[in-house]
Amino acid sequence: MSHRLYVLLVLLWPSPLAAGEFRAGAAVGDITPTQWPVNLVGTFAERPAEKAWDPLSARALVLDDGQTQLAIVIIDSCMLPRDLLDEVKRQASQATGIRSDHMLMAATHTHSAPASLDRMYAQASPAYLQVLRQGIVQAVTQAQTNLEAAEIGCAQFDLPEHVHNRRWFMKPGGMVQNPFGELTDQVRMNPPRGTGLLDRPAGPVDPQVSLVSVRSQSGLPIALLANYSLHYVGGVPPGGVSADYFGEFARQIASRIDPQQQREPAFVGILSNGTSGDVNNIDFRNPQPRKEPFEQIRYVATSLADAAHQAYTQTSFSDSISLSMAQRELTLEVRKPTPQQLERAKEFLAEEDESVLPARGKAYAEFTLQLQAMPATENILLQAVRIGDIGIAAIPCEVFAEIGLELKQRSPLEKTFTIELANGWNRYLPTPQQHRLGGYETWMGTNMLEINASDKIQKVLLELFNEVLPAEQIQSTAVPALNVP
Questions:
Q1: How confident is the model at residue 474 (pLDDT cuts 50, 70, 90)?
Q2: CA dist 262 to 62, 147, 253, 308, 318, Å?
Q3: Distances, alpha carbon 50 to alpha carbons 29, 77, 241, 248, 391, in Å
Q4: Structural domain total, the chain
Q5: Parallel, antiparallel, or unpaired: how do β-strands 148-158 and 268-273 relate?
Q6: Is the backbone peptide bond immediately before 37 cis, with ω within 30 degrees of 0?
Q7: Helix axes 126-145, 82-96, angle to 10 degrees
Q8: Could you tell me if residue 195 is inside a domain?
């Protein structure tokens, strides 16, 4: 196995206004179910789980520059509703004094986690929701308790071998009708691999891995927050929950950075999901043999941990930095079906013989009616975080890679990355151009926000990045807003 490694040694802006030394703390909260069975999400069928193949965790990093204190929490879940996270933030704020608008909480997107909201084939267990809430609050509270004098460094490198765009233009004969009985899609999600029907991918990937490394002033590792734009890996056998490659990476990076477990409290490895709404781990042109359960998870996690550790050993650290965080609600329209689409959905649901319907026809008929019943608008929460000259955008959707790439290019902060599925779940976020191509991620139900949502979201995030810049940087680094109505 080989990969290209490009390490950026980061000079972090000093904090002229800092009232005290920079501190950091990290902790892990256990969110593994305690009562069984639980319903798993991530497919169009019921999947009960009776055990845990590996633990599920909420991993928290708390940073404090003497004036601003913030928390970043990455949670082993497929998706998390905003109302649950709002309540958890309120509880964590009461316990710690950290402002709730200075907390970024995001799901990893493992497809082997219990439901946190009711879905068609998986209802959330009230008992599990209590475990989930308690584990997240515990992680934030303990991370704050663990605060100590610290320093931070950042590295970025490319690891392209694991990321593949899953939306493809097909040659004649390669398209199939969608769940609405239409042949209007121009691209196909997860097409048959290794066939002559493949034409070309419909979008790019983001191969960059970003690392935010934190260590004590004596040089002992505290935490490493990684970001990679890979949907998930899979290959988890049925019947159990799993943190997928996100949890395996956390274990493996810990074994490399702190092999003797010399720290107390223990080092915390964290992997967040970047912009992977149209990216997965399948090489469609060169299909690989079927692997044993967990084999591919370990392979990807090992590759990522090896590269991350190499970058970590070459990273420069600083203890003189400032922090800033801003958030804003954005009101977006919810997509609504036409009268003709509503009538078709009702006809599909009334049909007793599913064999005459397109694949998943009844499921998407249900989704169509659900969208019709939703309010006309949705308020989504967007955040921008600055850690020295590192920028983090937070979006509550499964975000297409090209959106993350554009945010990196346009951000006034040179080292910028996006954490998706943050502070809520508003389904997929394609660009307007990708909407026109159709495909799974644009279908009504899979997708809920207005067609221009990505442009409006980028506009707000670029404004938020400008808000979190140090005062002396704002005039010279201001980013013009996107021209969005």
A1: low
A2: 21, 17, 14, 20, 22
A3: 21, 17, 8, 21, 40
A4: 2
A5: unpaired
A6: yes
A7: 40
A8: no
pTM: 0.94
CB 357 within 8 A of CB 323: no
Tokens for 281? Answer: 């781990």
Domain endpoint, select from 373, 391, 423: 373
Tell me which residue has tokens 């151009």.
433
Round to whole Å and give the CA distance between 354 and 372.
Answer: 23
pLDDT at 18 over 80: no
Pair (110, 233) in one structural domain: yes
User: Tens digit of pLDDT for each residue in 421-472?
Assistant: 999 999 999 999 999 999 999 999 999 999 999 999 999 999 999 999 987 6
Other C-beta atoms within 10 Å of 197: how many? Answer: 15
Residue where the block lists tokens 């950091």: 24
Q: What is the pLDDT of residues 350-362, one digit of tens each?
A: 999 999 999 999 9
> What is the domain extent for residue 361?
337-373
Q: Do residues 280 and 349 share a domain? A: no
Candidate from 10-24, 105-119, 215-229 with smallest mean pLDDT: 10-24
Q: Are residues 286 and 345 in the same domain?
A: no
d(CA 416, CA 406): 10
* In a shared domain, residues 348 and 464: no
Provide the 3-class DSSP secondary structure of residue 95.
helix
Residue where one domain finishes, among candidates 323, 355, 373: 373
Torsion region of 308: left, alpha or beta (phi above 0 gives left; psi -120 to 50 gives alpha): alpha
Per-residue DSSP letter, 100: G
**Position 479, amino acid:** V
Together in a domain, 68 and 213: yes
One-character DSSP codes across 145-189: HT-EEEEEEEEEEE-GGG-EE-EEEE-TT-----TTS----SEEE
Map residue 250 onto helix, strand or coil: helix
320 and 405 share one domain: yes
Say if residue 229 is in the same domain as residue 369: no
d(CA 240, CA 110): 12
**Cβ atoms 232, 109 nearer than 8 A:** yes
Is the N-terminal amide bond of 412 cis, ω within 30° of 0?
no
Tracing tokens 């945010």 back to the chain, one arrives at 407
